[in-house]
Hints:
Elements: H1 2-25, H2 34-43, E1 49-51, E2 55-57, H3 59-82, H4 92-111, H5 117-136, E3 142-144, E4 150-152, H6 160-182, H7 184-191, H8 196-221, H9 228-259
Antiparallel strand pairs: 1-2, 3-4
Amino acid sequence: MKHRKRGLVLWAAAVLVLLAGALLAGSPGRSENVQEAMRDAVLHSVNRISLFGLKEVNPGMISAFLVTGALLLAAAVVRLFVIPRFQYMPGRFQMVLEQAVGMFDGMARNSSPHRFRFVGAYIFAAGAFIFVGTLFELLGLQAVTVHGHPITLPAPLSDVNAAIAMGTLSYLVILSGGVAANGMKGVGRTLKEFSLPISMSFRLFGALLSGLLVTELVYYYVNLSFVLPVVVGVLFTLLHALIQTYVLTMLVSMYYGEVSEPAPKNKKIHTVQK
């Protein structure tokens, strides 16, 4: 206990010293004002990256390619080298993996008991992409824009195009469940929720972009920002990663269960004439 208290005191003292130095040092110069930085974070009209010299793309697309490649590589490694070595008494990594798979599988079974295998696999993949993609911005990977300026690669879903793609894909998955279970009646059930892809898309985009903009504001309006932005950025990123992963997977499984529920059969009632 004494060592733990001593560590907390030293950590708090280090934070206070850094904050005092930040306030005394003054604010460094910026090449662009905060309005330009926030506008470019939404529209990506200035800081664009060349994709193999073929086309100028948004930084979010590069981030999406990197996250997708990392997830596919990790999945291949786990399937080839980790799963064959699973034991009856699980280790730490096996326990974490089983808990994650069990959580999404249980969510799919509870929301869609009639058809849960496909939606369980989809929400696991979508949840992994959202969670890892949101944490990706904490790596601070650098890229060079077409104008020769360095830029930090953002989270993939902070780009509105990626958020719309995720929302539309989730809506198509829900539609496929309705068609597989009830045919054209399932299409009618799904089309009733016409605003669903829009709401899911802009929920993802707004939540992730808000963290980016708050961090940008802290960087611009706190002198020598090298303490507070780290805390704010990490907290916002972790919070958004957990919340948005849970919200989208829960919505997809819930709506998938509604549209894939078998339609009740009409039963003829025979009346006895007296």
